[in-house]
Structure formats: structure tokens, C-alpha cells
Backbone:
């Protein structure tokens, strides 16, 4: 009885101490936030970026020493610092700073669909969906599998036969031998990106992305409360990252680098040498590489896969949407080291159970067809040429794509905002084009998709040309004095 | 020039202040962690639970006052406290405490599949998949849609025709009028749970779950770094939560309550009155209710939907897997207030684009068929009766299910561990049954599924009876003195 009361009293005392320590932490946090806001104001006056990775890095190192002295474990320290950095950024960003709702290609797509449902005809140069459709044999296989009732729960990683076939495909294509346990059949490339990120990222971890980039890469990291860090590339650098920029963007919190070659939206292709250099940087720091290679068959030069580097911490993502026109089937695959694929498979089992078996059987059929991806690749190359021909007659700068299904021109008109152009073009001229802001800090760029027929592309670009030309001319009645 | 240097100096000074404040916070955190560990030791000695919601609640209120005094905004305060509480729990749990890898029904399922692939025959009483299969008309519709090439990207929320049909279904079934904008077609019930949770939960938010529960509810919260809080129900209470237990589990961080009726694994059904009382508690505190009603057609009494309460913060989840045997199709729907459905749809658009159109067309066809769900419901009721008949001859206690496709008996043998039983039964007798530990703190329970034929069920239960009976008898050669 006395012991119990002594214990209870001790618990009360300890709890009171914890409460008092908590109060002090909160007081210090209020003070820290106030200073963070002052730094934010100062940075705005100095016109420097709010996020300063070097300052964070210095502070991380300094604090690590203090933490060690006080016996705080490194994991707690890392978590706490990440938490405090996020709070600082929140305080530094005033409401005006916070990124407003950016117009993305999805917004333009939705708006275009609305116009269409009210009876208007729209030319779609905004979507990432080729108009090809799946080969007839694939449709037929799906149809037969459906009638045969192949619709039961199966292994999360995918049908063993399909994974075996994927292994063969990787061998034929890249000369790499992988095991079926290193393959995860995913319900589309998007889910593949998420599953890989979920397998790897904890809150506060950093994920490097090469901008301009498909928005999903950053969104997936944010959904996991990790932090996307953009490495900006430019038209002048042919949209390729410099190895030193990758190196300088690394911190002790970096866990994953996302690559995308052929690239959406720029059409840049990472060649063997650059891929090996980037992988080398990651290897030294044990950083994972997720390489999104869904446009590999729309490559007008040699495609080099991350799997060919032999780097064990690399994950390769492929989808059936582009190579076989199977967009609405929602199926692809992720390849990588067993442990990571197992973790990604757990996430998939949790959220999806598995990809429907009839779809997996259709995917199996697609892999027997080597011809369709080649045909689709050739058509895409011709369409891209057509787009470039039109662009050559406009006041724009662009890099001729080496792959992919988009061109990413810069409109050479001062002070232009392509989000505005995209909206006006859609409303007035019924042409849907994605603004550059969807892919990072590129408000003078547009992404033109080659997903539709040559005729539509020609008509869409004719309208774009008329619009851009009119933009350059001074308005009527205004003379140049 | 001078101004620039002054600014730079000011920035340096501010940064140094931030660094020093950060050092102090880290020192305090080290001290706080040390006290937390002491509390953990004391609690273990006193044999009380580590997680103490009341202590947390008191501290939250006390700190809120301090924070206000120091001008810290309530959101920052909430985030910080949640962060500190998580750290405390980490410190209080010693390695032995941390939950080891629990054996779930999925582990048993995988192990059973392994045995089968080595040529063994296994009786499956562990899976949540009925053996019914989809109606022929549904297979046929899928097949025709596949041949017609209905495989393009579509709206994230689902085909407008399908959502219109779902609206009619809800009206016919529950007499509620909803709008198509309040419906999201999801790729299976699992994804529906995740999409709803992702729309609602921020890190540190609390989600209430009624135990025993399908593991996914907690897993989805954890994937979002929210915190699942279990309300334990017992066989003695007919597996229903008391309203006061729900009330007492609420904190200022509670955001969502998950209900599942008919229940997996217990077969409990929440009637109109209890549903209304629970909803009333949530309404007072503006807490969302996610009601998983996928077993609604396997209900042997009246099924009452959360939608019938009219509570605007309720979300209802339904799937085609059980009612029409469409497990491997991966399709279901979520219904709720527009703002939440829009958020869930954004998450789905991000991770999946949409559910394949040919699957949605098959789902549309299923909704025209009112007969199949009734037939499947009747068969399930008969099988449950069969299971109960067997259980009546064993040393077990159980509640006769009022719905669902499982029975959740307690094995009345002292010190029994059903995870061990489940493994032995599978290895020796080739019967796969889910251990109670998969669904919460229920190690003397088993979940028996009625997903397989009556013959298999009878044979599986015969083997279980033999096993349990032998468990009661003293081992050979040991006499009872």
C-alpha cells in the first residue's frame, strides 16, 4: 500500500517536471518563431530565397554536437530539427508568399472537359495520354480473361507468370538478370512512384527532384510528409542537371533522388555517362535513385536504364501506358532491390490488395508484342518533328526533344505568364496547353503534348502561333513614339 | 552597399539567436526524454498502460494557456505537443515493449499459399474473400467493354453514369438523396479507407477505431502519421462500444471515428439507436465518422447506414467485392460531403488517375442486379449457422453473428495463444484460420471465415474441434494428482 502510494507520488512529481519542461520548450518555440519571422522579412527585403539549405546544414551539424553532449540519440535529434525547420519555414512564409493554387495541366484538362460537355470542340495539347489505344490482341486477352472469371485476390507483387515474363523482358532489353522477387506489378506509374516513395521516405526526409518535373514526384513526397528539394535545370543547359548541382543539394536528410528520362516535360535524355556520374554521387552517400523510364520507347536516341548501372539502391519504374497505349488499364511495374520491393509491396497490399488479374493477363500479352512500342515510338517522333517545325516559325526558344512526347518551349515575350496564355488559349481558341508553372518555376514555358493526331497538332499550333504573334504586336491605336 | 551589409549582419545575428534557441530546445528535449524514460519504468513497475490519454489531455490544456500567453499560434502549439507526445511514447517504450511482428490473417494466407504451391491441399477459413465470384452478366459486360476499348483516362471521381446510378441505389436502399459530386468511385474498399483518411488526417491527429477491427483502419492512419486510438469492446458487451467509452476516448486531437457494421471480425451490427447515439457524440465535437458498410448485404438483421442519420460529417464506404462477389475487380465507392469527397478524389487522381473504365462499366451492370446480393447474403447466413453449430460442441464462447462473414470465438483454454494455434493448425492439419491478435489485443480468439463452401467449412471445423479437444486433455503419461 505504502509502495503504491510512493510510486504514485513519484509519477506525479515526474509528470509535473515534464509539464514544466514542456512549458519552457513552448516558450522557446514562441521566441524561435518570432525570430524566424524576422528572418523571413529580412530575406524578402534582401530578395533571397526563404529556404536556405546551407544554413540548415550548418545548424544540423552544430546541433548534432550539442545533442551528443546531452545524450540525445541522433534519431530524436534529426526528427526534432526537421520539425523545427518546417516550423521556421512556416513562420518565414507570409500569406502572400505561400504558393497560391498553381494552374496545372490537370486544371486545364478539367476545364477543357467542361467546355466539351457544353458542346464545344477542344484541341488537346495538354494531356499526357497518347491517342494510340492498346493493341487488339491486348483488348482480346482482357476480354477472354474477364469471361473466364480471372478475378480473385492474388499475390500483392503480381502474378508469378507476369513477373517471370518481366524478368525476361529486362534481360532482352538491358541485359540485366533480376529475380521475380525484385519486381512489383503496380496499378499504373503514379502508384509506382508513390509505393517507391512510401517504401523509402519518413517524415522530414528529403527527396531530390530535377525541375522541370512531373508534379507527382513532389506531391508523393509531400503526401508522406517528406520534403521535396528541386534541382533546377535550364534550357541553356539542355535541361540536364550538373553533377555538382546534385552534389550540392544533398544533406544528411537526403534519402532519394528521382530521375525521369526521357523527360516529361523537356524531352531531355540522360545518357550513359551522365547517368553513371549521378549514380556515383548517390552511391557515395547511400542515396536511393528512382528512375522513371515510362517514356523509354519514345526515345529518339539510345535509352539508358538505371538498371544498367548495377547500382543496388536503384529502382526503375515502367508502365504499359505509353509503350502499348494501355493508359486506362492502369498497370506498370517497379524493379529494385528485394528489401525495397518487399516494402513497396506491403504498401500496395495494404491499399490495393493487388492489380486485377484480368489486367495482369492483358499486360502479359502486351509483353509478347515487341512491334507496337516501336511503331508508337516512330509516330511520336514524327509528331514531335511537326511540333518543332511550327515552333521554328514562332518567337520561342526550345530544345529539340531527344525523347518523350512533349516539347517545352519558352515564349520569348517579356513578362509573359503562360498560365494566363493557357487559360486564354483555351477560352478563346479552344486549344488546351499546359502552362510551365505546373512543372516548377517556369512561368515563361509551355508544355505541348504530341498525344493527339498530326492534324489536331497542326491546327492547335496554328492557333497558338496566331495568338503568340498577336501578343507581340502593340495593341491597335497605340503608336511607338 | 552599406544597407546590404547591414542586412547581412542582421541576418547573421538573427541566425545565431535561432541557433542558440535551438540548442536550448535540444537540451530541454534531452532532459524531457530522460524524465519520460523514468515515467516509463515507473509505469511498468506499477503495471499501468504507457499511453495515458487523460494525462495528455491535461497537459494539452495547460500548455495551450502558456502558448497563448507567449503568442504562439494554436496550430503550432498543437503540432509541437503532438510531436513531443510521440517522442515521450518512444522513450517510454523499451525495446521489449514495442509490439513485435504480430501474426495476421495475411501471414497465415501467405503461408497457406506456400504450402499449396508445394502440392498440399489447405482448407481456407482465414480469407476475407467469398468464393462466389461475379455474376455472369458482370463478367460479360467487362469483356464487351474491353473489346470496345473503353480504356482511356477519365474523371478521378468516376464515370458520371456510374455515379448517377449509385445515387439512385442509395435512394432506393436508404431513402437518402445525394449528389453525384458526393460520390467517389474507388479501386476497392482498402483504397477507399485510405482516401478518406488521407482527406482528413494530418500528422498527430487521432483516429478512433473500435477493436477488434480490420487491421487496415489503424494501418491507414499510421501511413499518414496520424495516431490510431483503439476503443476496446468485449464478447461480454456483445462486441458493441459503449457511448461513454467513445466519449472518454476523445481528445482535442480526435478527427475521425471509424465504424464497421456488420463487423469484421465479430459479426456485431450497430443498430439505429446506437448509431444515432454515437453520431450525436461526434456531432457535438465536429468529428468525422467513416462507416465501412461493405458487409451490408451479409446482414441477418436490419442494416442501418450512417447516411440515414443525416450527419453531414459522415462518410460511407461500400464495395462490390462482397455483395456481387467482385473481389478481384477492385471497385467500390465512398459517399460523403462534397468537400471531403473532393479531397479524397484529389488523392485518388494523384495516385491512380481513375478506376479503369471497363471495370466501372462492369460495376454499373452489377448495380442493376438486386438479386445476387440477396442470394449471397442467404448463403452466408447458412454457412455462419453451420460454423456456429460446430462451435457449440467445442470449449469456446462466442457471440452469434448478426451479419458479416466471420465468427470470432474465444477458446476457453487457459493461457492459450491463438497465433500458435493458427500456425500449428495450418502446419499439421492444413486448416488456415486467422488468429485474434490480427484484430487487436485478442490472443484467445480466432476468426473463422465463411468464405468457402459448406463442405470445406465442415471439414475445417472438424479438424479444429479435434485440435482444441486434444489441447484440453492432459498430455499422455501425465496424471492429474
Residues:
Amino acid at each position: 500500500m505504502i509502495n503504491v502510494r510512493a510510486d504514485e507520488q513519484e509519477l506525479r512529481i515526474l509528470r509535473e517536471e515534464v509539464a514544466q519542461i514542456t512549458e519552457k520548450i513552448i516558450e522557446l518555440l514562441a521566441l524561435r518563431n518570432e525570430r524566424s519571422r524576422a528572418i523571413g522579412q529580412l530575406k524578402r527585403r534582401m530578395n533571397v530565397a526563404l529556404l536556405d539549405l546551407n544554413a540548415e546544414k550548418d545548424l544540423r551539424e552544430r546541433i548534432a554536437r550539442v545533442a551528443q553532449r546531452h545524450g540525445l540519440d541522433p534519431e530524436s535529434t534529426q526528427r526534432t530539427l526537421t520539425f523545427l525547420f518546417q516550423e521556421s519555414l512556416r513562420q518565414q512564409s507570409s500569406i502572400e508568399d505561400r504558393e497560391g493554387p498553381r494552374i496545372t495541366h490537370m486544371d486545364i484538362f478539367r476545364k477543357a472537359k467542361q467546355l466539351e460537355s457544353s458542346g464545344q470542340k477542344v484541341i488537346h495539347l495538354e494531356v499526357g495520354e497518347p491517342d494510340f489505344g492498346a493493341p487488339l490482341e491486348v483488348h482480346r486477352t482482357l476480354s477472354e480473361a474477364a469471361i473466364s472469371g480471372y478475378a480473385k485476390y492474388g499475390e500483392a507483387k503480381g502474378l508469378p507468370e507476369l513477373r517471370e515474363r518481366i524478368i525476361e523482358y529486362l534481360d532482352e532489353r538491358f541485359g540485366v538478370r533480376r529475380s521475380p522477387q525484385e519486381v512489383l506489378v503496380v496499378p499504373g506509374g503514379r502508384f509506382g512512384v508513390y509505393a517507391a516513395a512510401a517504401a523509402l521516405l519518413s517524415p522530414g526526409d528529403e527527396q531530390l527532384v530535377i525541375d522541370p518535373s512531373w508534379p507527382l514526384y513532389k506531391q508523393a513526397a509531400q503526401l508522406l510528409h517528406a520534403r521535396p528539394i528541386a534541382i533546377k535545370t535550364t534550357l541553356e543547359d539542355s535541361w540536364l542537371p550538373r553533377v555538382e548541382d546534385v552534389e550540392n543539394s544533398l544533406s544528411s536528410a537526403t534519402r532519394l533522388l528521382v530521375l525521369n528520362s526521357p523527360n516529361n516535360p523537356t524531352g531531355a535524355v540522360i545518357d550513359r555517362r551522365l547517368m553513371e556520374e549521378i549514380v556515383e554521387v548517390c552511391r557515395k552517400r547511400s542515396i536511393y535513385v528512382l528512375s522513371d523510364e515510362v517514356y523509354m520507347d519514345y526515345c529518339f536516341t539510345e535509352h539508358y536504364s538505371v538498371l544498367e548501372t548495377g547500382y543496388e539502391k536503384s529502382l526503375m519504374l515502367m508502365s504499359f501506358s505509353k509503350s502499348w497505349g494501355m493508359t486506362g488499364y492502369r498497370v506498370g511495374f517497379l524493379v529494385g532491390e528485394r528489401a525495397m520491393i518487399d516494402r513497396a509491396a506491403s504498401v500496395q497490399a495494404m491499399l490495393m490488395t493487388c492489380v486485377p488479374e484480368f489486367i495482369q493477363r492483358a499486360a502479359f500479352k502486351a509483353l509478347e508484342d515487341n512491334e507496337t512500342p516501336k511503331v508508337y515510338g516512330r509516330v511520336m517522333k514524327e509528331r514531335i518533328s511537326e511540333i518543332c517545325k511550327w515552333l521554328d516559325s514562332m518567337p520561342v526558344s526550345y530544345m529539340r526533344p531527344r525523347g518523350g512526347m512533349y516539347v517545352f518551349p519558352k515564349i520569348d515575350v517579356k513578362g509573359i505568364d503562360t498560365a494566363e496564355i493557357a487559360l486564354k488559349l483555351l477560352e478563346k481558341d479552344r486549344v488546351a496547353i499546359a502552362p510551365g508553372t505546373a512543372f516548377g518555376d517556369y512561368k515563361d514555358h509551355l508544355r505541348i503534348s504530341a498525344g493527339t493526331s498530326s492534324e489536331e497538332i497542326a491546327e492547335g499550333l496554328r492557333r497558338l502561333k496566331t495568338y503568340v504573334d498577336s501578343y507581340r504586336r502593340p495593341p491597335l491605336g497605340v503608336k511607338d513614339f
Summary: The radius of gyration of chain B is 26 Å. Chain B has 16 helices and 13 strands. The longest helix of chain B spans residues 2-46. The longest strand of chain B covers residues 254-260.
